[in-house]
Amino acid sequence: xxxxxxxxxxxxxxxxxxxxxxxxxxxxxxxxxxxxxxxxxxxxxxxxxxxxxxxxxxxxxxxxxxxx
Length: 68
Fold this sequence. Notes:
The chain is 51% helix and 0% strand. It has two helices and no strands. It has helices spanning 15-21, 31-58.
């Protein structure tokens, strides 16, 4: 929620604040926006994969029969 200004205040570092600040420099230095954006995407992917693995490991209806 830092991107629209509803979360952490600017002196505290955050990927969303870095991405928000990089908007004004996007044409001069695109890497200022690319790296925080990639960081946010990687964190979201990691949480999704962790959630899927946790669901698969703890699913009580999962059958563990192997096909021959």
